[in-house]
Amino acid sequence: MTQSALVVGVTGIVGRALASLLVKEGWQVAGLSRHATTQLGVTPVTADLRDVDGLARTLAPVRPSHVFLCTWSRQATEAENIRVNGTMVRAVLDAVRPAGTVRHVGLVTGLKHYLGPFEAYGKGTLPQTPFREDQGRLDVDNFYYAQEDAVFAAAARDGFRWSVHRPHTIIGQAVGNAMNMGTTLAAYATLCRETGRPFHFPGSPVQWHGLTDMTDARLLARHLLWAATTPGAFDQAFNVVNGDIFRWKWMWARIAQWFGLEPAPFTAEDAGGILPLERQMADDAPLWAALARRLGLVEPDLARLASPWHTDADLGRPIEVVTDMSKSRRLGFTAYQATDDAFFDLFGELRAHRLIP
After folding, report:
1. Domains of the chain by range and CATH?
2. Which of 251, 290, 300, 307 has the largest count of CB atoms under 10 Å?
3. 112 in active site
């Protein structure tokens, strides 16, 4: 039986990697985004997830066996995040319901399941690390919970199986993505190299000295495919990380070396993080535009490449974050990705596509 997928958010970090994998594996893939894409070998579906009626009309002819929800919309408050993102998930699942073809829905959320939403990120009483799936929800409003509840309700109504995937910070290529540490650091390193500015770590002492992990988008794509096609993984939530752990004081030097830089001494020991990227890069948009013109880069808009606010949120956390993968390992998912190689692969891809020099 031919597998057919609807990838929601196909131009994002996760959707792009997942669509590429599914096409390579012989799936028929419809890729939904706000702007049509002819890349990745998918059938483009253009729709606004907040236009419920328009979405229903657009998805009427799409008959997927699997739906993968790989997108979200950032709002000003968590209450609005809950309203908008919960509605978008319901709208997609309502729109594909009439066809009666959906057998599995995969939802990508993240470690804010354990760390809390941006309004209360890394604060209050948090679960012990390493984070494990059985630690449950925090007693705080969180749009990830609203997305999960929308999937659970539709599954109970329509009879499909589901999986929830909770990656740590994702490394992958996407332009115009709201949460994109890898490309943000690549743009920052490029600016430091071209201007002679010091390559300062922008985060907290805890992140500099403590242990952490990350998630390669390609590994996450493999995990989504595995969970959607492995009966033992049906109707479960999973953490998804690369499988290695590191300290940023080591990784920062690795990234600096790739760009031909010397890492600046870490100077935030007493101030708890004094050089956030949002401050360091606040006036860099004209500089990047000029750099793009001079070096022939394809994206002159720095805001479409870098999301300093999100990188600051991750690197400024006051707690060590390590994620447990035992649940997936016990069920047979054993894929591994070295995180420094994930960064280097991304940087090479960005260079090949003329997004960085």
Report:
1. 4-167 (3.40.50.720), 175-213+245-321+337-353 (3.40.50.720)
2. 307
3. yes
